[in-house]
UniProtKB/TrEMBL annotation, chain A:
<dbReference type="Pfam" id="PF13280">
    <property type="entry name" value="WYL"/>
</dbReference>
<protein>
    <submittedName>
        <fullName>WYL domain-containing protein</fullName>
    </submittedName>
</protein>
<feature type="domain" description="PafC HTH">
    <location>
        <begin position="5"/>
        <end position="116"/>
    </location>
</feature>
<dbReference type="InterPro" id="IPR028349">
    <property type="entry name" value="PafC-like"/>
</dbReference>
<feature type="domain" description="WCX">
    <location>
        <begin position="234"/>
        <end position="308"/>
    </location>
</feature>
<dbReference type="Pfam" id="PF25583">
    <property type="entry name" value="WCX"/>
</dbReference>
<dbReference type="InterPro" id="IPR057727">
    <property type="entry name" value="WCX_dom"/>
</dbReference>
<dbReference type="InterPro" id="IPR043839">
    <property type="entry name" value="PafC_HTH"/>
</dbReference>
<dbReference type="InterPro" id="IPR026881">
    <property type="entry name" value="WYL_dom"/>
</dbReference>
UniProtKB/TrEMBL annotation, chain B:
<protein>
    <submittedName>
        <fullName>WYL domain-containing protein</fullName>
    </submittedName>
</protein>
<feature type="domain" description="WCX">
    <location>
        <begin position="240"/>
        <end position="311"/>
    </location>
</feature>
<feature type="domain" description="WYL">
    <location>
        <begin position="142"/>
        <end position="206"/>
    </location>
</feature>
<dbReference type="Pfam" id="PF13280">
    <property type="entry name" value="WYL"/>
</dbReference>
<dbReference type="InterPro" id="IPR057727">
    <property type="entry name" value="WCX_dom"/>
</dbReference>
<dbReference type="InterPro" id="IPR026881">
    <property type="entry name" value="WYL_dom"/>
</dbReference>
<dbReference type="InterPro" id="IPR051534">
    <property type="entry name" value="CBASS_pafABC_assoc_protein"/>
</dbReference>
<dbReference type="Pfam" id="PF25583">
    <property type="entry name" value="WCX"/>
</dbReference>
Length: 313, 314
């Protein structure tokens, strides 16, 4: 632990206790995310604060008898330190992001106003960070009402990989906004599995008059490792990209990215469904080609040749 | 980290908060336990300590009372978080806000802020839900350095691998702000090499972002809308035109989602109109649908499609 991190905690611990009259060591440890032993070390350190001149005195008086912390005297550090620019920005930008969610309630704008006032000048740079969400308010509000009422949804959902609208019944589990995109997580009765549906791909939606019924084995997805989950059945596809096709490396989760010099790059993608990769190769044309597997590369050329024939007439 | 150092810094903060008068370095040395005897060693340690306090955001003030020797103090009013009262629903929203940042340098700042607000007596533990929780990642390696530059109004330089470039190029930017759009981070500002407003994608920055100008030197133009700058990628939007395409019946659902005026042409095909701005982009996009789409008009798109498909066949 760095000294500044600990100092930060020490300066917050005193007002934390003062504002609550007394706090148990256990509660303080939980609030600050450290062990009880660490809190006791902190209290001992605070208790040792002394000034030697002009007259020696100990400005902090506290006790933790019976595991209950009481601060009797701590005049100079009885209030927490102001928010710094980073702290004010982290909260304010997050709050303004939440404010983009439809029907977020007026508490959000009240907190923003109060926090801006409390942070003062430190709040200013927060306006230089912005997060744009893709919320699709109409769909989101409808999905949320299905979720709140525990009712099944019937949706027409566009699957870009297959270029197909599909109709399916989904029992909604939760709404997510991850990295700017909104998703519904739910039990898809067609796939009989937990699936994520991007709200911008929901073409049509009905809240059915049927209660949703989510099987016990339906586990919410763990999002800590991102939304893309490789599976053993995946096909590995290798692309060689020219400088103009480099965006592919930014856009899709790649298993490997190898620079080939002159701005060219080789990427390996993993996919369960090669149809979208075929589309991608058709889009890229000269700026990227599939080198492996060879039969997939041949299919792409055949697709293009068939399309080209339509212009012969 | 050593306990002695934390103890000394804490003593220093308490000492400087307790004084109304400016204390000279010598007075501080007398009052605060833990400083070494030697003058040089004291000076070095005191300098480092002052720097640490500033990094923590503690407003260390330098000045003098009348014509006395210059000294230091911390004004209570500048140090203390002002009184802030939140209703339970407001506090709950605050807890939600602190969870927005995911694997990001701002996540740490958010928990630091929450800690101070809790210390001020606010309870943020209550479960808040708007039925949806946004999560935003800012784990791009270039993010922390660019945010610091934006915050401190300093110009920066970095190597940038632009799409369509054969190698990374050194760029010089006066950054105005960072924007996340569709899950990707961008920095917008004044490009000093081009003399124009430019937008850079953080994931395409190679290596370190280095501040190459003094703090406070960058001026963000009055009334600039960062999101707008990023959406338009620094340039004006090209004029929009309309293309007529044939869509295979029962197919090309992706195009049908945004096409206008879809009508039957014959047994095999429908006709539809598409609004577009850039010929190349439209041709790239339509090529993905292979033989489910044919461009009828205008001729430049038709030609672009033919060239594009020929390139795939080669």
């Amino acid at each position: 632990m760095s000294s500044s991190e600990r100092l930060r905690r020490l300066l917050a611990l005193v007002p934390y206790v003062i504002n609550r009259s007394s706090v148990s060591v256990e509660e303080a440890a939980a609030a600050f995310g450290v062990t009880e032993k660490q809190i006791i070390d902190d209290l001992n350190l605070l208790w040792c604060v002394e000034l030697r001149a002009p007259d020696p005195y100990c400005p902090i008086d506290l006790s933790y008898e019976g595991g209950e912390i009481v601060v009797c005297e701590a005049e100079s550090i009885s209030r927490p330190l102001r928010l710094d620019v980073d702290e004010a920005a982290a909260l304010l930008v997050a709050l303004r992001t939440i404010a983009e969610i439809p029907e977020h309630g007026d508490a959000v704008s009240r907190v923003i106003a109060k926090l801006e006032e409390a942070a003062g000048a430190a709040a200013r740079p927060s306006s230089q960070v912005a997060v744009e969400l893709d919320v699709h308010p109409d769909v989101l509000v409808q999905v949320r009402s299905g979720l709140d009422q525990g009712r099944r949804l019937r949706m027409t959902y566009y699957v870009p990989g297959r270029d197909e609208n599909t109709v399916r019944d989904v029992d909604p589990m939760r709404l997510l906004i991850v990295d700017g995109w909104s998703y519904l997580e739910g039990w898809c009765r067609r796939a009989e599995a937990v699936r994520l549906f991007r709200l911008d791909r929901i073409v049509d939606l009905q809240v059915l008059d049927v209660p949703s019924s989510i099987p016990e084995e339906a586990e919410p997805l763990d999002l800590d490792d991102g939304l893309f989950r490789p599976s053993p059945e995946d096909v590995r596809v290798t692309f060689e990209l020219s400088p103009a096709g480099r965006w592919v490396a930014d856009h899709y989760p790649c298993e490997s990215v190898t620079e080939l010099g002159e701005g060219r790059v080789r990427v390996v993608l993993r996919t369960r469904d090669v149809r979208w990769v075929r589309r991608l190769a058709l889009r890229l044309a000269g700026s990227g080609r599939i080198t492996e597997p060879a039969d997939l590369a041949a299919h792409v050329r055949e697709d293009a040749a068939r399309a080209l024939k339509l212009y012969d007439a | 980290m050593s306990r002695r150092k934390t103890e000394r810094l804490l003593n220093l903060v308490v000492c400087l908060l307790a004084t109304r008068r400016y204390l000279t370095a010598e007075q501080i040395r007398q009052a605060v336990p833990g400083y070494p005897g030697g003058d040089e060693a004291f000076k070095r340690m005191f300098e480092r300590d002052k720097e640490e306090l500033r990094e923590l955001g503690i407003p260390l003030e330098m000045g003098s009372d009348g014509d006395e020797e210059a000294g230091y103090r911390i004004q209570r009013q500048a140090y203390e978080l002002p009184e802030i009262q939140l209703t339970p629903d407001e506090a709950a929203v605050l807890g939600l806000a602190a969870r927005v940042w995911h694997r990001a340098s701002l996540a740490e700042a958010a928990s630091g802020a929450l800690l101070k607000l809790r210390a001020a007596g606010i309870d943020t533990d209550e479960a808040a839900s708007l039925g949806v929780e946004p999560r935003v990642g800012a784990d791009e390696p270039a993010f922390p350095a660019l945010w610091r530059a934006v915050r401190d109004r300093r110009s920066v330089t970095f190597e940038y691998q632009g799409v369509g470039r054969s190698g990374p190029q050194r760029r010089h930017l006066e950054p105005w702000g960072v924007v996340s759009r569709r899950g990707r981070w961008y920095v917008a500002g004044h490009d000093r090499d081009r003399g124009e407003t430019r937008v850079f994608r953080l994931s395409r920055i190679r290596g370190e972002v280095v501040a190459d100008g003094p703090a406070g030197a960058v001026t963000v133009p009055e009334g600039v809308d960062l999101r707008e700058v990023v959406t338009s990628m620094g340039g004006p939007a090209p004029a929009r035109r309309t293309a007529t395409v044939r869509l295979r019946r029962g197919a090309a659902d992706g195009i049908r989602r945004w096409a206008a005026n879809i009508r039957r042409d014959d047994d095999e095909w429908d006709l539809a109109e598409l609004t577009f701005a850039e010929v190349e982009r439209l041709a790239d996009y339509l090529a993905g649908f292979a033989d489910d789409v044919v461009v009828v008009d205008p001729p430049d798109i038709r030609d672009a499609m033919i060239q594009h498909l020929k390139a795939v066949c080669q």
